[in-house]
Amino acid sequence: MESNCEERLVRITAGSVLLEGNLSLPDGARGIVLFAHGSGSSRFSPRNRYVAQLLNQEKLATLLVDLLSPEEETVDLQTAQLRFNIGLLAERLVGVTDWLVRQPDTGPLRIGYFGASTGAAAALVAAAERPKIVRAVVSRGGRPDLAWTGPGARRGANPTDSRRQRPAGH
């Protein structure tokens, strides 16, 4: 299925940081999928770019964004600490989501998250922060368990809480 799809570099202010991403908007887009990368991955990940291309062919816009600034990425390559800071990654994802809502060409679109690795945990935490905006979260090879531990645990409810999963009387 061929689709006319414009891809452009975008710069997004999230908190005090400027993030870069690749926004693809197919003609007649029905929604947008925001990719949350983690564990040293970037918006140039061949696997995520391939998935984004398939989504674009199905008339879903995509935004592949780096949740760490270039300077932070350099530090993270040495320390590997920022990629596990789920609270920070989720905060950035919320900032990018808010940016999408404010843009004329993406504001009307329904938003879903596609989380990879630690980005999956960040996506769950961010979705809990914007429950009326984020319609779906999909994880590929993710670490959703990290969403409910560490700095991001203050957001959202724990999905493994047995009180929520058992029917009354059990």
Structure report:
The protein has helices at 46-57, 70-79, 86-102, 118-129, 162-165; strands spanning 5-14, 17-26, 31-36, 60-65, 110-116, 134-140. The protein has 170 residues and is an alpha/beta fold. It is built from 5 helices and 6 strands; from the N terminus they run βββαβααβαβα. The protein starts with a strand and ends in a 5-residue tail after the last helix. The chain has one domain: 3-Layer(aba) Sandwich (Rossmann fold). β3 (31-36), α1 and β4 form a beta-alpha-beta unit. The protein is globular. The chain has a 6-stranded mixed beta sheet with strand order 1-2-4-3-5-6, with helices on both faces. Residues 150-170 have low confidence and may be disordered. The longest helix is centred in the middle third of the chain and has 17 residues, at 86-102.
Q: Give the SSE string.
A: EEEHEHHEHEH
Number of DSSP-assigned strands? 6
Computed Rg: 16 Å
* Count of individual helical segments: 5
Write the layout of secondary structure elements.
Layout: E1 5-14, E2 17-26, E3 31-36, H1 46-57, E4 60-65, H2 70-79, H3 86-102, E5 110-116, H4 118-129, E6 134-140, H5 162-165
Parallel strand pairs: 3-4, 3-5, 5-6
Antiparallel strand pairs: 1-2, 2-4
Helix pairs in contact: 3-4
Q: What are its keywords?
A:
alpha/beta; 170 residues; Rossmann fold; 5 helices; disordered C terminus; single chain
Short description:
The protein is built from five helices and six strands; from the N terminus they run βββαβααβαβα. With 170 residues, it is α/β, with parallel strands linked by helices.
